[in-house]
Amino acid sequence: MHRNLRFLLLFSAMVAVTVSGTLIVVVGDYLATLDYHHRVATSMAQVIDVHLRRLTQGAEIALKRTVELASAAGGSAGLHDQEAWRQIRDYLDPVTGGDTIWIVDRDGKVVLDSSSFPGSGARVADRAYFAAGRQDTGVFVGPAIRSRLTDRIVITLTRGLRDAEGRFDGVAGINIDADWLLSFYALLQPEMKAEIAVFRRDGSTVINNRDLMAMIDPAADPVPLWYHGGSMPPAGLLADFDPDAHLVARAEVEGYDLEVVVRLDRGEALARWQVRTRNNAIVAALGGMTLAAVVLLGIRSFERERAALAAAREASAELALARHDALTGLASRGLFLELANAAAAHAAGQGDHVAALYIDLDGFKLVNDRFGHDRGDAVLIEAARVIDGAIRSADIAGRIGGDEFVVCLIGPAAAIGRAMQHAAERIQAGVAGIGDGVACSIGMASAAADRVDLPALLRQADEAMREAKAQGKNRIVMAPPPGGTAPQRRDGQGRRP
To answer: What is the rounded distance in angstroms from the CA atom of residue 286 to the CA atom of residue 298?
Structure first.
């Protein structure tokens, strides 16, 4: 009896230890899973914030030039000739995702738009941006609407026009393709689908990736998605979300009264945790119904399973880290090719071109030899910062090894040449400013997106870069088209000799 009691106590202690250990693991795993997905949502919101600020700043430059054009013509009534039409088309070219630039007169009639000449004469006096232009509210970022010029869903950035006496004279605006924005948001969701929305500070929805068609439908419920109430609460949108159902992150787009909100479904985020928890519960239940020896074997099996889970998490973290260069933070070769191929596939449907820049640092080995690897690493980090700062928000940069970097650009055929030349010159000037005799040689190549072979395009750019090296370094060389002549050389400032 005494032995049985001891065995029962030992068995009970083992069961208690097993259950307690399982609960500790389950709770810790639960908290770690929630923290990981919340950090994912926060990172997405921050990326979208930066992207929106770059996009709106670029669009605002084109809009400012359009307003100046109207002023020089004596007002909206003076803009009816083809020369003005050609000018606003040129203003639109550098705007990533730009759909149309247009001008309406004081009565709300479109007098000039970049999509066609002569314009459609559409009436837009009922639009929210027209009322905002009358009130002279500065740059107005409006909600997604269906364009009466191109019949596409667009986001509008507008500014009111004033005549010499300061009276309202119409509105100038630029439309951003909503599908282009949603395609970019889709690239940010490799693991699980997130709901993304951009709100105005008055509570109206600018864009969302959940049900864009319902948002622009006049018959749809006017209450903004995800929250209820007339105006945004002082604490922001987080006050109106159910924390038991969602994981939410937000970011404010400074200067434009916009707020980015990213929402993850809590149940989906915890799905794998629930599977792991179910498995752990089964192990604990079986352990409680077996003899002490079986319980001990079960504990060892559980510990092996926990070690395997930790190894799987570590391998997953290493895989995520491998997708980015650990030193510079730029995309690795694999991630670069993945993002560039996705961008090229989207561009193929638009009739756009793909361009590649292949950048190799000149004088880098001397820096390593003279000052050591710490200075060499600092040069690589600074070069990556220069490259990332010299390109547009939609362009893709990566480090593919050593002191070699690549950039992928997308744009219309008529503008891709200017875009890659401008980016190459900015990169060359920025790298030259690093000091210690560091410069760079750049090779460029481009092709139509519907026919592009990205690895082959990179090889062309690489060959052009090697030609730049052969010509004395610190050069920009354009690869010839297939079957063309020798690469076109530029001097150290990117100009043809």
So the answer is: 8
CB 81 within 8 A of CB 90: no
Structure tokens at 29: 């795993």
Nearby residues of 17 by Cβ (< 8 Å), 6 or more positions away: 299
Contact between 168 and 106 under an 8 Å Cβ cutoff? The reply is yes
Catalytic residue among 403, 450, 462, 491: 403
Choice among 10-19, 45-54, 134-143, 371-380 with the minimum mean pLDDT: 10-19
Calpha distance 11→216 (Å, rounded): 65
Is pTM beyond 0.85 here? no
Q: How many residues does the chain have?
A: 497
| Nearest 10 degrees: Cα torsion 98, 115, 148, 257 | 20
- Domains parsed from the chain with CATH numbers: 1-322 (3.30.450.20), 333-490 (3.30.70.270)
Does 403 qualify as catalytic in the annotation?
A: yes
Own/partner long-range contacts of 338-342 (Cβ < 8 Å, ≥24 apart): 339/187, 339/396, 339/408, 340/396, 340/408, 340/454, 341/454, 342/187
